[in-house]
């Protein structure tokens, strides 16, 4: 039903305003940035075991990674078996109240993880084993 007379007919819009679309895209971008999870990438690929509960790690921790190939990384730096104690001592001197976070690959030899724990115990460091949180 068209109740208008011919001279009052409205022309269709020929111009499309993109300002509202830009606002929506900006809001979606902000939403996804705020809701996405930020995962710290330590740069060393280690398949750590899964656990029901977990704690976040930050700069107050001394990170030690043990790979399945038997390599040791102290705070991201490759360290040999013979230099493990001195590297951990250096890390403890930089962060005396630090806790050692052991990120041992689940396929790594247990003896390598125990070696790190023994050195940490000798240096009187608290030890935490890093795990992945399981999805339920």
Please report the number of helical segments: 3
The coarse silhouette is rod-shaped
List segments where confidence is low: pLDDT < 50 over at least 5 consecutive residues: none
Kindly state the number of beta strands: 7
Tell me the β content. 15-25%
Largest sheet: 5 strands, mixed
Average predicted confidence as pLDDT:
78
| Helical residue percent band | 25-40%
**What is the radius of gyration computed over CA atoms, rounded to a whole number of angstroms?**
28 Å
Order of helices and strands: HEEEEHEHEE
Distance between the termini: 58 Å
| Strand neighbour order, sheet with most strands | 4-3-2-5-6
Estimated structural class: alpha/beta
Brief summary of the model shown:
The protein has 136 residues and is an alpha/beta fold.
Could you please describe the fold and organization of this structure?
- The protein is an alpha/beta fold.
- It contains three helices and seven strands.
- Helix 3 links the parallel strand 5 and strand 6.
Q: Helices and strands in order, then pairings?
A:
Elements: H1 19-35, E1 50-51, E2 61-66, E3 72-74, E4 77-79, H2 84-94, E5 99-104, H3 110-122, E6 126-129, E7 132-133
Parallel strand pairs: 1-7, 2-5, 5-6
Antiparallel strand pairs: 2-3, 3-4
Keywords:
rod-shaped; single chain; two-stranded parallel sheet; 3 helices; about 140 residues
